[in-house]
Sequence to fold (399 residues):
Amino acid sequence: MDHHTATGRTGAPPRPVPFFTHARSFEERWPAIRDRLTEVADDGKFSHGSQVGRFEQALAAWTGARFAVGVNSGTDALVLALRAMGLRPGDEVVVPAFSFMATASSVALAGGTPVFADIDPVGYGLDPAAADAAVTARTRTLMPVHLFCQMADMGGLTRVAERHGLTVLEDSAEAIGMRWGGVHAGLLGAGGVLSFFPTKTLGALGDAGAFLTDDPQLAETVAALRHHGRHGRTLGHFPGINRPTDLLGVNSKMDDLQAAVLLGKLPALAEDIRRRAALAAAYTERLRDVPGVLRLPTLVAHEIPTEPVFYVYLIEVERRDALVAHLAEHGVGTETYYPVPLHLQPCFAHLGYRRGQFPHAERACERTVALPLYPDLGTDDVDRVCDLIRRFATGRAAR
Ligand SMILES: *Cc1c(COP(=O)(O)O)cnc(C)c1O
Fold:
């Protein structure tokens, strides 16, 4: 696809910039993916096949985890990890008020109670002081979330967990490639999850997820829970379902076709991450002095060197909803992550939280918008999106 035809000088409407597409990069990687899919079709094993185990090994090697357990989504990885960690009814898990629904719903679905705390307004991660204040005698676990381009303050949060004797489960669904002092996201506490939802940094062609851990017992239990409680020593191996078990499991196996797709895409992941960083830098350069843009992605300095990954390019703006409508009118897709803070979601009304309790989370919900960011994007697309934002801000928006 030619990236230099979007000027509109010919009078044709400029090419739309979707919020996400992988049309070009998928075509490039199709031969590698096709070979894998053909293998699956040839041996006829669409479930319990060999691709999942191979992907688990490749993923463990890529992240440095001792174990990677493939499951059918990041959400299920969270639920099964919490269950494997022994969460009991009445147990509390401290989660940030600003995140994807699964961060909190997984706690409730695993039988515990989510307890919300406010975020750091710059990096959008769970704030250690707020998390500390939310701990009660019933708290078992802290669940930091690594949103958009950087990890939550794992130094501060680990100290809070140690002080209160809590386990740490990282919602690292967005964080493949992010590292803290060289350690991959998900491996700083008991374990962490990854999501391979199609728009994520490493996306499948459907739903898939994984649990990362260095703890053999946790890996084994999550592996058993994903397949009706069947124990088996080898990850990626799905023991038959007719043996007795003490675990009430579910069917949350990773699909072999998705594992094949992910195996085909994994070799290009590092290059994709570099491309995302270059595009993010291009956005930042063009948006730096635009009026009405209240905050650009800001990497927070920590006591230890960290490696960001631009999964999402998220900005804070004045009149967010009007800007979203303006961009949509001109064919530019955006996404609002997340319009409603978790403590104000109707499904958690019974927990009794009120508006005003977590001002940083609430402000982020009102002001933030994610711009298109994916390896297929051209810098001319970035130019176009930034021009539209500038015109909107300076009141020169074409009506
Ligand atoms: C995507 C995501 C999830 C859930 O992953 P799925 O694979 O879609 O179930 C959980 N938490 C966060 C922060 C996410 O971004």
